[in-house]
Amino acid sequence: MKVQLSHSFAAGFGRPTVALDKLRRCQGGVAALEFGIIAGPLVMLIVAVLQFIVYQYTQNLLNNALYDSAAIRETAITSNNKTGYKTAICNKIVIMATAQCATAIIVEMQPLQDVSKTSSPITDGPFTSGTVAQVILLRAILPVTQFVPFIPAMNAKASVVFRR
After folding, report:
1. Residue 135 host element (H or E)
2. What is the distance between the alpha carbons of residues 57 and 63, in angstroms, rounded to a whole number?
3. pLDDT tens, residue by residue, 38-92
4. 126-145 per-position pLDDT tens digit
5. What's the gap between Cα 43 and its chain centre?
6. What residue spans define the domains of the chain?
7. How many CB atoms lie within 10 A of CB 136?
8. Which single residue of 39, 115, 119, 142 has CA 20 to 30 Å from 26?
9. Do strands 7-8 and 15-16 pair parallel, antiparallel, or not at all (unpaired)?
């Protein structure tokens, strides 16, 4: 295809009009370009929403596992078996492998009267069930599986108070 150049010599200036009208009306590839501009932020938004869903699901599973174990009185709690209790909790958290969960989860249990009155972080502290009819505080923290590298690490935290 040959492009015709036409010259207009109005007011003494030579101005080639190289089918400028055709270039202005050309729409080929515009949709692909627009999708390319939108695709990056759209994918990032979808991945961020999925990461938030994983966080909320892990939080919910950990919370339910602690409440269930306090209501049922698992033998690992009454026998002060921290490793057995971690395994029992991790069996209820289906979003993560049990072995990975058991090494990552931090659990502490102690009588409520022994707990500091100020806010304190959950450390791998004492695991004592106290005596019969004593009020017990059970707390756990579990790092969430993270697949978005540029956001800070998230931890699911749960606590429950129950009477032994």
Report:
1. strand 135-143
2. 10
3. 988 999 899 989 999 999 999 999 999 999 988 887 778 878 889 989 998 999 9
4. 888 888 888 989 999 999 98
5. 16
6. 28-163
7. 22
8. 39
9. antiparallel
